[in-house]
């Protein structure tokens, strides 16, 4: 089985949502200080890089990271090329076969690793949520920082996806990934209070 890492790197240059906590790693103790080990600490927004949203992110009564079943984040996924779209609607998605995949990953190719935080992104029209749900989809992944326009306050796509029990994976790095069927693993951390979590996302496939 072959494996593709579709995660973004976490480092001092990782772009974050404007005004949000920058990513920072530092040593709490160094080898010199302890005589035995380096011990690091991380400070970051959970919406940095490749991450999942918990419903609590956009609904104060919503489930937190610890409440979410892990099987959503593992299993058959289809990568769709939507690189021509400024908005992903139900009618656009009708043009694709989902091949029974419960996970759909949208490749917009608009935000490459190493580029700064985008100014604008293609977004998901709320009508895509009911369309995907009617095809049995439980997870929607995107290669941009949000499923809604960056200036959206109502977060219509986040809410529509949640209404249809579709979980959200954001900030994938799908550069160079050929559209098609894969086995996705993108497990979040069991952050008890979490409104989201960074993930290590990989796609596996047979040649
Ligand atoms: N919805 C975005 C994040 C988001 O909206 C956000 C993230 C950090 C700081 C502020 C944010 N939104 C503010 O209106 C996401 O899910 O990653
Ligand atoms: Zn997020
Ligand atoms: Zn989000």
How would you summarize the topology of this molecule?
Layout: E1 2-5, E2 24-29, H1 31-34, E3 39-43, E4 51-53, E5 74-81, E6 87-88, H2 90-93, E7 103-107, E8 123-124, H3 127-134, E9 139-142, H4 156-163, E10 167-170, E11 180-188, E12 196-205
Parallel strand pairs: 5-7, 6-8, 7-9, 9-10
Antiparallel strand pairs: 1-12, 2-3, 4-10, 4-12, 5-11, 11-12
Helix pairs in contact: 3-4
State the CATH architecture: 3-Layer(bba) Sandwich
Globally, the shape reads globular
Order of helices and strands: EEHEEEEHEEHEHEEE
Summarize the amount of helix as a percent range: 10-25%
Unique ligands: N'-Formylkynurenine, zinc ion
| Poorly predicted regions | none
What's the pLDDT, averaged over the residues?
Answer: 98
> How many strand segments?
12
> Gyration radius, to the nearest Å?
17 Å
Beta-strand residue fraction: 25-35%
Strand order of the largest sheet: 4-10-9-7-5-11-12
Number of domains: 1
CATH class: Alpha Beta
Number of helices: 4
GO molecular function: arylformamidase activity
Binding site for substrate: 17
Binding site for Zn(2+) 1: 47, 51, 53, 170
Active site: 57 (proton donor/acceptor)
